[in-house]
Every structure is written in C-alpha cells, then in structure tokens.
Amino acid sequence: HPSEGLEAGQGRLFCRACAQELSVAFTNFITRQKEADKVSEFVTDYYEKNPQEVGSDVAPATILFRWTIVESFLRCGIALTKVDELRPVFELAGHPLTESSNLKAFIPKILLKEVNLIKSELEDQFMTISFDGTTRLGEAVNLCAGFVVSA
C-alpha cells in the first residue's frame, strides 16, 4: 500500500494500511534504530576529525556494535572486563569484538556524547544550583541542580 504508510502521534505508531496500532516492541525498535543512527553519525564525525586514532580504519558497523556493547555495560554497571568472558557470545552477532582493554577507548567518546546531550538539553534553560559543604576534616559536599524542561 504505497500511499498508506505509518503514522506517528501521541507516542504511538499506527499503520494506516492495516488500520492497526503497532506494538510497543516495534516502536521501541524504531527508537533504538534512531539512536543507533545518531551514534553512527557521532562516531563517523569523530573519526573523520581524528583519523590518526586507533580504530578509525574499522568498519562503521563494527564500531557501532562495539560502542553499543560498551555503552550497555556502562549503563548496567557491569565491569567492562566481563566482555572478555562473553566475547564468543557477542561475536555470534557477526561482528568481530576486541579485548576489553581496547574497548575502554570508547569510554571517553561515550562520555563526550553524553555531555553534549546534557548541554543541548540544558541550553537556554533557567537553572537553580544549591551548594552546601562542611568545613570539617573529611569534607562532604552536596550539589543539587534543578531545571524545568518544557514538554
């Protein structure tokens, strides 16, 4: 049905051809694919600006796969050294993986991407920052920031 495509609205995805709302799993797949495209663009731009860096000659699909592995481990709080033991399982996806010591090179890049994301979210936002600290030995510092994101 060429003229009846997908329609997105109110956080839902609707197929006009079959008049059905698509499942949350499919919607999540599309969201993940959009995120993968953003990461791929970020990584491509990074390696174009830094062609001398190790890994710049690796295929983009392999870089994206490795990035996803490292980012997933960081989000879950799992030590990156566990990748070495799970490497045979990950390589079943058809992309070569490298040792965890080499994958650690992705951490600063992931941090840079996250910092850029936070900067873009907070740009032109009014913020309040509260700071409190003690002057005793073994000082404790508390820093809280609050902002409102318009929907």
Describe the structure in your own words.
By secondary structure, the chain is α+β, with helices and mostly antiparallel strands. Helices cover 48% and strands 16% of the residues. It has helices at 24-49, 60-76, 83-90, 100-103, 106-122; strands at 6-9, 12-15, 20-21, 127-133, 141-147. The strands form two sheets. It has a three-stranded antiparallel β-sheet, with no helix packed on it. Strand 4 (127-133) and strand 5 form a beta hairpin. The chain is extended, with a radius of gyration of 21 Å. The model has no long low-confidence stretch (mean pLDDT 81).
Give the gist of this structure.
By secondary structure, this protein is of the alpha+beta class. It is built from 5 helices and 5 strands.
Note the main attributes of this structure.
5 strands, alpha+beta, extended
Strand content: 15-25%
List SSEs in N-to-C order: EEEHHHHHEE
- The number of distinct β-strands equals 5
Sheet having the most strands = 3 strands, antiparallel
Unreliable segments (pLDDT under 50, ≥5 consecutive)?
A: none
Cα separation of the termini? 34 Å
**What does the radius of gyration come to?**
21 Å
Give the helix tally.
Answer: 5
Widest sheet, order of strands: 1-2-3
Which helices and strands occur, and which strands form pairs?
Layout: E1 6-9, E2 12-15, E3 20-21, H1 24-49, H2 60-76, H3 83-90, H4 100-103, H5 106-122, E4 127-133, E5 141-147
Antiparallel strand pairs: 1-2, 2-3, 4-5
Helix pairs in contact: 1-2
